[in-house]
Amino acid sequence: MSAKKPFIGFIGLGRMGGSMAKNLMCPEIDLMVYDIVHDRYPEYEGIGASTAKNLVDIAACDMIFLSLPASKEVRETLLGEKGLLPHLREGQIVMDFSSTSLASNQEVAEALAAKGVGFMDAPVSGMPIGALNGTLTIMVGGPEELFKAVYPHLCRMGKTILHMGPVGSGQMTKALNNVLYNVSIAALAEIFPLAVKLGINAERFEQVVSNSTGGSYASRYFVPRVLERNFEGAYPISGAYKDLVNVESITIKECIPVPVLSATTAVYQMAARRNPHLDKSSMFMIYEELLGVTVKK
């Protein structure tokens, strides 16, 4: 007799989750997907997945994966009045790929544990192109035995998959990585307008930076967008500001000095107040206005 195939539910078919769910699908599993918007269901039915009419249908699955916008949506999906919690059973595994606050993450983990449901936080990095190509970095926090159980499925969605420690470790890892990235973008936003003010051609300076020691993923992604005066389409500045505040609040509680993080948070705060819906490159505008210059081709 052949072994029963794992029955996996995937909630959230947005820019990241949509591609992740498609990559997850294979002959070795049964997949059911759910999204509040059903328009994309035919895409998944076409590759052999079943589609849930209602959220509670997902409760039948052995493993449940989530890819949702933020803590609020995750909490409502799992713990809300019409959430999954009452329908879950002991022995199931829930893995959350969303980027959430540490406090919300812990609340969800404790509520599921009370019902004997295993929980792992597994935020991802790699942007939509990484989700599409199955090359995401996946940072997992949770019991090691659960990590081993889901690891073969994670390999279809990601390239770098690491168990970072107990529940919460995945979110903390991503938050700290985001801090490094956000600090880099803040530095670019300060230095490029300064270069233009000092008479340096912006395009040529970008070529030097991106091919020298000052270059980074941030410079190669954001500076060309700024030169084109494109400040939309990437992660919004308001979301990045919240990420920084989450980490800084922990350092305040632990009495850990982080002067660079604090300065970066202040810059993001100014940008978020001015243009909350623009992306992180909108920080350039603050220094452009201050110096009376424009970073452009």
Automatic annotation (TrEMBL):
Task: Specify whether NAD is a keyword of the entry.
Answer: yes
Q: Which BP terms from GO are recorded?
A: organic acid catabolic process
InterPro entries given in the database record: 3-OH-isobutyrate_DH-rel_CS, 6-PGluconate_DH-like_C_sf, 6PGD_dom2, 6PGDH_NADP-bd, HIBADH-like_NADP-bd, HIBADH-related, NAD(P)-bd_dom_sf
Q: Which residues form the 6-phosphogluconate dehydrogenase NADP-binding domain?
A: 8-165
Cross-referenced Gene3D superfamilies: N-(1-d-carboxylethyl)-l-norvaline Dehydrogenase, domain 2, NAD(P)-binding Rossmann-like Domain
In terms of PROSITE patterns, this protein maps to: 3_HYDROXYISOBUT_DH (PS00895)
Instruction: Say yes or no: keyword Acyltransferase present.
Output: no
Where the record annotates domain 3-hydroxyisobutyrate dehydrogenase-like NAD-binding, the positions are 168-284
Keyword list, A-Z:
NAD, Oxidoreductase
Q: Give one Pfam hit by family name.
A: NAD_binding_11
SUPFAM superfamilies hit by this protein = 6-phosphogluconate dehydrogenase C-terminal domain-like, NAD(P)-binding Rossmann-fold domains
Q: What is its EC number?
A: 1.1.1.31
Q: Where, by residue number, is the active site? A: 174
Which GO terms label this protein's molecular function in UniProt? 3-hydroxyisobutyrate dehydrogenase activity; NAD binding; NADP binding
- Which top EC class applies here? oxidoreductase
Q: Which family does it belong to?
A: Belongs to the HIBADH-related family.
Under PANTHER family, the record lists: 3-HYDROXYISOBUTYRATE DEHYDROGENASE-LIKE 1, MITOCHONDRIAL-RELATED
Q: Which protein is depicted?
A: 3-hydroxyisobutyrate dehydrogenase
